[in-house]
């Protein structure tokens, strides 16, 4: 998925440590033009910009999709990050400039490593009668952000633990180790708890964690969260206790070691300075929007019916740290 905001803010992100759990509220963001897909964004925001290396979280749907291409995200670039696509309902087609063509349905994960640069598209298929899911981004650490681009797909097996069904799709949890490429210590899992149920999840105390709620009102370590809220737990917890009330809970658990690095994030780029972002944008506009260069930083997406997405105009000032 692309960040299609016409005036995207720049973000210089600094890992922070809180001394108690906190609730992060979503904000609605329209992606696209007249037929904009509305998403609920919980990362980044002024209250907290990262959870581990997780730097971006958009929830979307459930949205009716009576025809193909209800979601039609044109080819667009990424640098310095990984995208993680996870669905609750629907079906998406992924194409990218390393030659990948893959579909994703609920219970499967698409992981794309942008590294030094990639472009990709995501389109809902004709059998996606409803779209509902989450798009997440992971910032790559300095030592790995120039790595070669890569696409991976994985189908996790559900695990019963306590009253919950848990699907671990990144990192390690509950004895499950996911064979996908990561560049910093991370974890991600869907957690489903029936009404009145409880689950105790043993977690790495060096990690900070977030529980992104999709349904129900879970109580996480004594703090209640509602739909589309992100409940943050700082490092130090060796166990996360999730309790469901009168309604079943469905949520995503994300976590990781604090990144400990500043990053600049603007549009679909993650870099380290204003000048890097300017350079990435110039390359995209000249090598892709101008005249496609298969040997350029972002390559070419084959098989997509349409033009790539032009970059927004940069603000009329240097991108500055925003703490």
TrEMBL record:
Family affiliation: Belongs to the pirin family.
Domain Pirin N-terminal: 39-138
Domain Pirin C-terminal: 190-286
Pfam families to which the protein is assigned, alphabetical: Pirin, Pirin_C
InterPro entries: Pirin, Pirin_C_dom, Pirin_N_dom, RmlC-like_jellyroll, RmlC_Cupin_sf
Organism of derivation: Aeromicrobium wangtongii
Protein name according to UniProt: Pirin family protein
